[in-house]
Design a protein that fits this description.
192 residues, elongated, 3 domains, CPE0013-like fold, alpha+beta
Length: 192
């Protein structure tokens, strides 16, 4: 390792964005609510290092949300249900047994993420005659991850006229999933 490239222990504090000067913004640790100190670091494939690295910027592999251990049937992922960010290990050979979770919701997330991953869709739709031209919307519940592109295409077809009420159903039973596309804010008519 180059003498100018001294390693820095991140301790769970991994900056995700850099400014042009190479300084990262203050970030929160995934394991606590404490804010980390400002780092003068950059990303490279070898981890977080001080100064500039000859390698291109890459996300740290240890933070990828889903990894597999070869032929053992073990999958490793980070739980996103709450801010704790528990590191889960799911054994597919033992009926999706989950370890490493700090609560029952983490166990459910680990099983669901491998068997049938779902996400809540959030996007915007066009509105005519309102204070704003776009209206934020979301699905009323999570839908299968594989249907997200088709659901986005359906949302792109929506054209509304103001006023729109918060919680108003825009598309009922989106793609047969049982989830509705609903407005997440009220949008009154624009004053003439």
């Amino acid at each position: 390792m180059n003498q100018n490239m001294e390693s820095v222990s991140a301790g769970g504090h991994v900056p995700t964005a850099e400014t042009p000067t190479g300084r990262s913004d203050i970030k929160s640790c995934a394991r606590s609510s404490a804010t980390s100190a400002q780092f003068d670091v950059g990303f490279c494939q070898k981890g977080i290092q001080r100064g500039k690295c000859a390698e291109p910027a890459q996300p740290v592999e240890a933070l990828s949300s889903l990894k597999q251990d070869g032929a053992t049937g073990l999958r490793h992922l980070v739980c996103i249900v709450c801010p704790r960010g528990c590191r889960l290990t799911v054994d597919e050979t033992q009926d999706y047994k989950v370890t490493g979770n700090g609560c029952p919701r983490g166990a459910e997330y680990g099983r669901t993420e491998l068997q049938n991953p779902t996400r809540t869709l959030t996007t915007t739709v066009c509105v005519a005659g309102g204070l704003h031209r776009r209206l934020p919307v979301r699905t009323s519940k999570a839908i299968p991850k594989s249907l997200l592109p088709a659901a986005m295409a359906e949302a792109a077809k929506v054209r509304l006229t103001a006023p729109v009420a918060a919680g108003q159903v825009l598309i009922h039973d989106l793609l047969g999933t049982g989830a509705d596309l609903v407005a997440t804010r009220a949008l009154p008519k624009a004053e003439p």
